[in-house]
Specification:
213 residues, Ribosomal Protein L25, Chain P, 18% helix, four-stranded mixed sheet, 5 helices, single chain
Length: 213
């Protein structure tokens, strides 16, 4: 995804406030062998770009002074209650250096899985994004996970999926975390419980004629 940035000459709280009044958002680009560079972006264009998943999870093409370079979005500062972006940080990308990024997981096929279709369960997405380590050229926009094989009582773990070529998952302590758990819907168990409740109670045993009075 491509976006356009402009050089920013002034810095400081006052300069940034005046910049925002004109419809621009201050930012910075850092990393690599070059010095950090102050930039500004059109706020409306940035606002719409931030609504796109790809802007957060992929290598971006930044055009600055007619020159394109590869960058990653690293931080966004939002106004506490206004729909306004206060500041953005970008990191330069080196083609030979591996990146540590969060990549969204796109789950597909759960509606056709036995767990959901016939076994009265729902798929609980425990993890929605995955920490990965890879070269910029191998960074996926997202990772598709097929849930069509889900069964009742069986969870889907990290080890159960195939990651794209060149991509390694970064786990924190748990080497094989649960990605999707299968949960039985309460209404699916209700018929059995209702049937048990509706069953007639056993008749009391008859007392023998010779019993004590």
């Amino acid at each position: 995804m491509k976006f356009v940035a402009f050089e920013r000459a002034k810095q400081g709280t006052g300069a940034s406030r005046r910049l925002r009044i004109t419809g621009r958002t201050p930012g910075i680009v850092y990393g690599g062998k070059a010095e950090p560079q102050l930039i500004e972006l059109d706020h409306n264009a940035l606002w719409h770009a931030l609504k796109k998943e790809v802007f957060h999870s992929s290598v971006l093409d930044m055009e600055l002074n007619g020159v394109e370079s590869k960058v990653l979005l690293r931080d966004v500062q939002m106004h506490p209650y206004k729909q306004q972006v206060l500041h953005v940080d970008f990191q330069r990308v080196d083609a030979t250096t591996k990146l540590h990024m969060k990549v969204p997981l796109h789950y597909v096929g759960e509606e056709s899985s036995p767990a959901v279709k016939t076994e009265g369960c729902i798929a609980n997405h425990v993890v929605t994004e995955l920490d990965v380590l890879c070269l910029p050229s191998d960074l996926p926009e997202f990772i598709t996970v097929d849930l069509s094989g889900l069964r009742k009582g069986v969870s889907l773990n990290l080890a159960d999926i195939t990651l794209p070529k060149g991509v390694t998952a970064v786990t924190h302590g748990n080497k094989n975390p649960v990605l999707v758990s299968v949960v039985v819907v309460a209404s699916a168990e209700a018929p059995a419980a209702d049937a048990a409740a509706a069953a007639p109670a056993p008749a009391p045993a008859a007392k023998g004629k010779g019993g004590k009075k």
